[in-house]
Design brief:
Length: about 160
C-alpha cells in the first residue's frame, strides 16, 4: 500500500530515481526542452521547480544547495547566470508539460517538458511576428509621389 507516499516512485530505488531526475534536470537546463514520458515529466516538474526558485537569489549557499541536487557545475552555472535572470519576475510555474501522444515501441504516453520563458510561440514577451498590411504599396506611395510632384512644380515656378 502507498499510504502517505506523496510522489511517484517511478518503479525505481531511491538512488536510481534521484540520479535519473538529476540527469533529466541537467538536460532540461542545458537544452531548455526535453521529451520523456508523462510520469517522468510530472516527477521532473516537482524536482526542478524548487531548484529554479533557489536560483533566483545568487548566493554561495544557494549554489551549493542546487549543486547537491544537480551534481553538474555547468548546469548550475547556466541556471544561475541565464535562466534565473529570465524567471526573476515569475512567481512560479517555470516548466510546461505538453503531451505528445504515445511512443511507437511500447505505447507509453510521451510529453515534452520545456522551460516556459524559452518558448517563442507561447511566450508573449518573446519575438513578435511582423504584421502584414493588406493595402498595396502603390496606394500607400501615391500621396508621397503627388506631394513630391507639387513641391517640384513650386520650386520650378
Amino acid at each position: 500500500m502507498r499510504h502517505g507516499k506523496k510522489f511517484n516512485h517511478l518503479g525505481r530505488q531511491t538512488a536510481h530515481r534521484n540520479a535519473m531526475l538529476a540527469n533529466m534536470a541537467c538536460s532540461l537546463i542545458e537544452h531548455k526542452r526535453i521529451n520523456t514520458t508523462v510520469a517522468k515529466a510530472k516527477a521532473l516538474r516537482m524536482y526542478v521547480e524548487p531548484i529554479i526558485t533557489k536560483s533566483k537569489e545568487d548566493t554561495t549557499h544557494n549554489r551549493r544547495v542546487v549543486f547537491s541536487y544537480l551534481k553538474n557545475k555547468y548546469a548550475v552555472t547556466e541556471l544561475f547566470q541565464q535562466i534565473a535572470v529570465k524567471v526573476a519576475d515569475r512567481p512560479g510555474g517555470y516548466v510546461r508539460i505538453i503531451k505528445l501522444g504515445n511512443r511507437q515501441g511500447d505505447n507509453a504516453s510521451m510529453a515534452m517538458v520545456e522551460l516556459v520563458d524559452y518558448n517563442e510561440i507561447y511566450n508573449p514577451n518573446g519575438a513578435k511576428k511582423k504584421k502584414t498590411t493588406r493595402r498595396s504599396k502603390k496606394k500607400a506611395d501615391a500621396p508621397q509621389v503627388k506631394a513630391e510632384a507639387e513641391s517640384t512644380e513650386t520650386t520650378e515656378e
